[in-house]
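Record now logged for everyone:
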Amino acid sequence: MKKYFEILQSIVSIVALIVFISAIAGFLTSFAYLLPRNYGNIELPLAEPNHIAVVNNGLIYCGLNIYNKIQVYDQNGNFVKGWFIESGGTGFGITINEDMIKIVTFANKHYFYDFNGNLLREEDHGDPTKSATYDEDLAGLKGNGKGPVYDKMENSYFIKSHWLFPKIIKKTSSGKEVILVSAPIYLAILKPKPAIGILIFMCLPYALIDRKLKRIKNLEDNKNI
């Protein structure tokens, strides 16, 4: 019996160590936006997608909140390009018109990019609670940013499961749904919040196993007296 609980305790300890390392790695990846600009064209896993937009040529622009990054995909879900933005850690939304991309952060800062990710200009609209343009510029960003949005062929695109196992889904005009982009399962713990939650949850079984082992040891010590 004692051997069984010792093995169980070792397994829990190893899993906890792996999750802890994942939590550290997830925390560090949240600072990916500090990397040099040319690293923006390296695809990062789909993590905490918070906004999606589609342009007339079919390119899909997705905002990844945890990385402060825009990633661009074609209609088949292939990564095309990307770049980091300065959202100030407040979250952001994407608005697209014919000649530029407008990024609006929840701190009410506006960034204007061309379609290659070059910053054209930026504007600080001040305190969002006092700005007259706040409601107009940020309308729908929190509620509708995950789609659906439509291309010129009337196909719709939307983000499914923003937090855990996120996906970008394409729904054709005939109603068929296709997963264009998905996140690998390991990313469920390669982020600070889920990993920390798992660690806290694992404290209970570890404490129970440790308590059981101490009881067994006490019984063995009493027998040897």
